[in-house]
Amino acid sequence: MQRKNPNIINYSINNMKFTKWTAAAMLCLGAVQVQAQVKLQANNVDEVLKAMTLEEKATLVVGYSRAQATETNNGLLGQHADLVPGAAGMTRPIDRLGIPSTVLTDGPAGVRISPTRPGTSDTFYCTGFPVGTLLACTWNQELVEEVGHSIGNEVLEYGNDVLLAPGMNIHRSPLCGRNFEYYSEDPIVAGKIAAAYVRGIQSQGVGTSIKHFAVNSQETNRTFVNEVVSQRALREIYLKGFEIAVKESNPWTVMSSYNQVNGEFAQQSKGLLTTILRDEWGFQGIVMTDWGAKEGTVKAVIAGNDLMEPGNQTEINRIIAGVKDGTIPMADLDRNVKRMLQFIVQTPRFKGYKYSNKPDLKAHAAVTRQAATEGMVLLKNDANTLPLQNVKKAAVFGLTSYDFIAGGTGSGDVNKAYTIDLMQGLTNAGIQVTETTKNLYLKYKAYEEAKVAANGTGRGWGKAVLPEMEVSRNLIDKEAKEADVAFITLGRQAGEGSDRKELNDFNLTDIERQLILDVCQAFHFQGKKVVVILNMGNVLETASWKGIPDAILLAWQPGQEGGNSVADVLTGKANPSGKLTMTWPIALADVPSSQNYPNVLPPAPVNRRNPQPIKNTDYTLHSEGINVGYRYFNTAGKEVSYPFGFGMSYTTFSYSKPVVKAGKDGFTATITVTNTGSVAGKEAVQLYVAAPAGGLEKPAQELKAFAKTKELKPGESQTLTMNVTAYDLASYNEATQSWETAAGKYTVKFGASVEDIRATAPFVQAKAVSVQGHDVCKPNMEL
Q1: Judging by beta carbons within 10 Å of its beta carbon (0-12, 13-18, 19+), is residue 543 exposed, middle or buried?
Q2: What H or E segment, with its residue span, contains residue 667?
Q3: Where is average pLDDT lowest: 1-5, 94-98, 433-437, 603-607?
Q4: Backbone phi, then psi, for 486, in 5-degree steps?
């Protein structure tokens, strides 16, 4: 055993004091005892936390961008050669403690990174998958998990640790610019689909970030708007999906939204981020901010926001000062730092994963092509217009047919290698496109693109929609004689940072309306069919024109293989089984939120605080409460263009043998579905429940579960099973601040849509059940 020498100095990396004598002694004795420096491991998080300085703690909870990484090193940051170009952000490394940087990349329709890099001819394109609305309309959790598996593989193989997805806010209004990223007007659909997506991605050893938590219902003035909502509606509509995703998929991270919720910024709300998310739901991961630097860093730390993104030195300084002056309890900062360390040890970068930069893009393209067909919704199919029969030549109208929209704009856009448009898809399927119309549209497209380039505006953060072209009736009449069928594609685009408008967006433009009229008149005169294809990520007004064409296919924004996917459905190679996860109203004014939502250009600058608060810009009242989507339309008996859950097929299905069996906690429901048609297909069954009278006021019926069959051959049957707990049946009582399930007789309904109930069965809840909540997130304005 070595004898301890009192002349040998013990020292630490933060307190090195050397004298000539000690230096000489070190050289002469050749034995210096250095205090062993702890390095982060999976099992020593607490030890590393104790070894961290205040400055290091503050650094770890503040992110940074690639631009910041190239700036002068502040002494705490390590090497940055392994950062991913185009990634949204990172966490800061601390080399002294073996804490690596981790990489966060945008989603949700695929990985968003730079496709090219200086110094190499290699490309780094990612697969453009279908948008969230389409995935939700599959009603197929297994399929969504498969898509997530493929996306997660690209996250991993391109050197990222977390995909900033899924987006799962509620479709409160058809005008929300980011509805294409989100799943539904119903929180059960949103939660279940998001959970499947998260499970798929995280199966690859990478993380997700469910967003935007919470009530990010509009893009107009999104960084400051105060979303004022009742506690009941907040719990039942806007938070329920997040609750399901947290409990069923254990996401690594949650992203707090920019907006205020009832007068308090979501990023600074302890009631939202700690009381509800962690104490009530049991969330174990980290919370990160959406990308923006607010002044309330100190409040965010205390509230339980673990990571400030994209981060800057000012935020670090605020945290250090807050701890020193006692504003931030050290225990709060330590809590957040510990969660960050627990997050980091899960990541591929911490584990030293050697990513390839070579994911199997060909295999993933096949996944997106097939998945897209299952989420497309057949809205109309008079006289079995589809699938096409004996069609060799098609006249293809609408500029979007030649300029297909794979996905929305903003951070949800993917840098993909290609997008297959409808013209290409039809050609690949062996259908000839008439040359005259095709050439005219291609020339017009080139002209409009040249105008955009000359103006120096580009095509936006993602793909913008070029203005539609007028087509003469003479040309249409000639095409009607030459072609076997006509296709008209209507395109819409929307995305991050702005909301849609009613005029020429939710509604048709005059040019589009005239095109539909002229093409249908000309082709119908020749005894030929017209099919309208909707290439968009959001709802469109259809009631005024849907009676004119023979068929309408809602293709959504189906990813990079979109044209091939549409052609697969048109030709019958794939049988569409998508159903709407949102109501399509007759008019925008029918939507309950329409009086409390931005619809015209705001009268004052947005993304800032206005001196005099402006309705629907600085604050938005959710006066409709829980009456969102079908909960309003179905209860009020209000006619719609297409109801929630609606979608047609090339075959037919019957429902039989409905059984509801009570259990210790809720019930189990079964239904047998039989393919009664002549081609194979899938059917999504929706389980609605009508509550007993008395107690809290409730909608006429609410979705509580759903399931989808496998592909059934003609004559084949499958029995589906769905489970519903007593808690699933509960409503939130603001008076008692609890979830309450009333005792009594419930009616369980098996539906093909909310308006097409095929079978029913009773269920008796023997006794009332209550689960206590907390009195947080109260409205700060009268609703």
Answers
A1: middle
A2: strand 667-675
A3: 1-5
A4: -120, 140
Yes or no: say if 376 and 554 are a contact pair by the CB < 8 Å rule: yes
Residue of 186, 290, 550, 568 marked active site:
290
Reply yes or no on whether the pLDDT at 71 is more than 80: no
What span, in angstroms and rounded, lies between the C-alpha atoms of 407 and 398? 18
Is the pLDDT at 75 greater than 50? The verdict is no
User: Phi/psi class of residue 545: alpha, beta or left (left: φ > 0; alpha: ψ in -120 to 50)?
Assistant: alpha
Residue 299 amino acid letter: K
pTM over 0.90: yes
CB-CB contact of 749 with 690 (8 Å): yes
- Closest-CA residue to 85 (of 108, 50, 111): 111
The DSSP bridge pattern shows strands 738-741 and 731-733 to be antiparallel
Q: Which of 528, 629, 519 is nearest to 581 (CA)?
A: 629
- pLDDT per position as a tens digit, 77-114: 444 446 899 999 999 999 999 999 999 999 999 999 99
Other residues' Cβ atoms within 10 Å of the Cβ of residue 734: 16
Identify each DSSP E strand in 356-410 by its residue range: 377-381, 393-397
DSSP labels, 503-546: IIIISPPHHHHHHHHHHHHHHHHTT-EEEEEEE-SS----TTTT
Beta strands in 146-296 (DSSP E): 162-164, 207-213, 226-228, 253-256, 260-261, 264-265, 286-289
Cite the DSSP H helix spans in 352-434: 361-375, 422-428
Q: What is the DSSP letter of 31?
A: -
Cα separation, 133 vs 556, in Å, equals 7
Would strands 717-724 and 667-675 be described as parallel, antiparallel, or unpaired?
antiparallel
Q: Is 279 a catalytic residue?
A: no
Interatomic CA distance for residues 744 and 728, integer angstroms:
15
Residue with tokens 């799962």: 168
Q: Which two structure tokens, joined as six digits, stand for 552?
A: 């309408």
- Please state the three-class secondary structure of 447-505 as a single string: HHHHHHHHHCCCCCCCCCCCCCCCCCHHHHHHHHHHCCEEEEEEECCCECCCCCCHHHH
Query: And the tokens for 98?
Result: 């073996």
DSSP for residue 590: G
CB neighbour burial string for 503-541, b if at least 16 within 10 angstroms, e if fewer: eebbbbeeebeebbebbbebbbeeebbbbbbbbbbbbbb
Q: Which amino acid is at 159?
A: G
The pLDDT tens digits of the residues spanning 267-300 come to 999 999 999 999 999 999 999 999 987 889 999 9
